[in-house]
Fold these 2 entries.
Entry 1:
Amino acid sequence: MMPRPAAVLGLVLALLAGEGRARADSTRRGPDGEPVRWQSPTLDVVVDPAVRDPGFPDPEGITRLAAQAWSQVPGAPRLAVRAGPATPGFNPSGANQVTVQYFRQGFPMSTTALAVTVLTMDQRGQRILDADVLLQGSRYRFGWLSPAGLPVSATAPFDVQSTLTHEFGHVLGLGEDEAHPDATMFPRQRPGEVFQRDLSLEDRASLARTYDLDGLPEGGCGGRVAPGVPVPWAWSSILALGLLGLGLWRRRAPWLLAACGVLVSAPPGPSVSGAAVVLRSHTVRRGPWLYTTATVLRGGRAVTVTLPGGSLQGVRQVVLGAPSGHRLVPGARVGAEALRGAPAP
Ligand SMILES: [Zn+2]
C-alpha cells in the first residue's frame, strides 16, 4: 500500500485525463482465468516478535482485528492469528505460515510503499503457497488510531490496522482496487485515515468472486469498463457531472458517484508510461526472497534493473504494493512504471 496524497481527487483527475486502465474490482486471475487463491480453508498467521512499536502496543491484537475483517465473511478462508517466531518466505519441504514482519531499519523491497505483501505461488501463478506481510517502519510512522481516526495531516501516524487489513486482502489473493476510493483494497492510505479497516461492498464482492462465495452483493458502480469501446472524453465528463449533481441532490457520496460515472464511460485510454522490452533476465534467491535482474531496452538504451520477485525452482514470487520482477521474462514488454525506483537491493 502506498501513502496517499489527495488520492480521491487524483483518481478523478486521472480518470478524466483518460490515463490508465481502470479496474472494476480487485480480483486477480491466473493465466486460465481462474482466480488466484488459496486451496486451504484456514491460514496460519504468525506475528513476529519484531513487530514492536511504541505507536501500537498490542500488535497481535491489532493483527487479529485486521484478519477478522476478512475472516468474518462467510465461506472465506479463516486467518488464524498467533504470536511467535515467524520464518518468512516459502519452505518447499515443510509447513508454511503467513508471517507479519516489521522493519525498523532498512527494507528488503526497495520501495516507497507503507507495506508490501509477498506472495509465493505455483509456477502458473494460480495457487497461493505462502504469503508474508512486510511493514516499512523504517520509513513511516505507524500508530493504532481511535475508530474515528485523526484529521489527515503530515504529522499524523499511519493507522497500522488499516494497513494490515489492506495487506491481508493481498494475502487472500486480491489485487489493488483503483476504482473505488472507499475500498480497503484502494492502494493508497493517508496518515490519520482509518476507513480501510472496514471492507466495502466492492471488497466483499471481490472476495466472493475469488472464492466462489454465494449470497454476497455485487457492489460498486454497477458497471464495468468495457475495453476497446471508445467513448468520447466529453461524454465521460457529462455523465460524471450528472452523477455528481445527483449525488449532491441526494447527498450520497457525490464524489464517488462522479468517479463511477467516469469509470463506466471512460475509454481505457493509451498507456502513458511507455514500455520497455526485456532482453535477458535471471532470478536469484537472497534469504527468503527472490530477485530478478533484467536488462531492458528502453528508448534505444539498454538498462539493467533489479526488482524483487521472479520465478525459480518451480515457484513464482510476486510483490504486491511495489514493482515486482515476476514479469521480467526475456521478450516481455513491461510498463516503464514497473521499472521505476528499483535499484538493486
Ligand atoms: Zn496494495
Entry 2:
Amino acid sequence: MNTWRVRFLYFLTSIAAVQNVTSLEEELTDSIFGNFLDPVKDLFEHKDEPSRNVVRFSLRKPSHPDDDLCYIISGEAETLSACNFSSTAKTFLVIHGWTLSGMFESWVSKLVTALYEREQTANVIVVDWLNSAQNHYVVAAQNTKAVGQEIAHFIDWIEEASNMPLDNMHLIGYSLGAHVAGFAGSHANNKVGRITGLDPAGPDFEGEHAHRRLSPDDAHFVDVLHTFTRGSLGLSIGIQQPVGHVDIYPNGGSYQPGCNLRGALEKSLTLAYLL
Ligand SMILES: *[C@@H]1O[C@H](CO)[C@@H](O)[C@H](O)[C@H]1NC(C)=O
C-alpha cells in the first residue's frame, strides 16, 4: 500500500463524511475501504485465533499402515463404528513432530506396522497436525500447547463416547510431538496410561517449567528415549534433561552412529538455519 493510495482513500472518505453521499457512492467507498482493510483484517484474525489448528485423527489399518482411510471425528460417535474402533483394545496415538515438507515422515507408517505386529487388535491412530507443524520452528513449538489441548478434547470425548478406560491409552510423540503429547496428557480430564517421548525437542523446552513441556505429571507412566542430544553452538536438537519417570539415553543420548545420521544432520542444519 503506497502513501498515495492511503491519501486517496483518506480523501475519498472525508468527502463521504462531509457530503450527503448517495448510497451508491457509499457502497463504493465501503468496498474500496473494505478491500484495503481485508489483508490487515486477515493479519489480526490469524493472531486472534491460535485455535485454528486443524488436528485430525486417522485410524490406520494393519493392511494399509500408510493410508488415511478413516478419520475419527470428535463429537461424531458414528465415526467410531464406521472406522471399526475397538473400545476394549489398546489405543495408540502417534504424534509427529516439526515438519518442513508438510507430509508424514516414513517412520510414521513403520511405527504403525510395528505397533500392529505387537498388538493385533489395537487402534493405532495417527494424529495429523501437519498444518500447525509446518511452520518456522519457533511458531510450531508455540503451537504444541493448542494442539495438545485439541487432542485432550478428543481423549475426553472418546473416553466418554466409547467407555474405554484411559489406562489403555498410549500416546507416542516424536520431537515436538512428544511435548504435544505432554500437553494432551496434562489437559485431559483423566490421566492416560502412558506417554512415550521419542527424542523430545530441546529448543524452547530445555529448562522450562514442567507444565510447559513433557513431564512425569502428564500420564501414569512417561518413558522417554533421548537419541540426539549432542549440542552444537549450545543448542541441542533433543532435550537433554530427564522429562519422564524413566529416561533412556542410548549411546549416552548424544547421537546414534550409523542410524539415520543423514536425517539427523539435515534436521540439525535446517534448525540451525531457521533459528
Ligand atoms: C469394518 O469392518 C467391516 C467388517 O469386518 C469391514 O467390512 C469394513 O470394511 C471395516 N471398515 C473399515 C473402515 O475398515
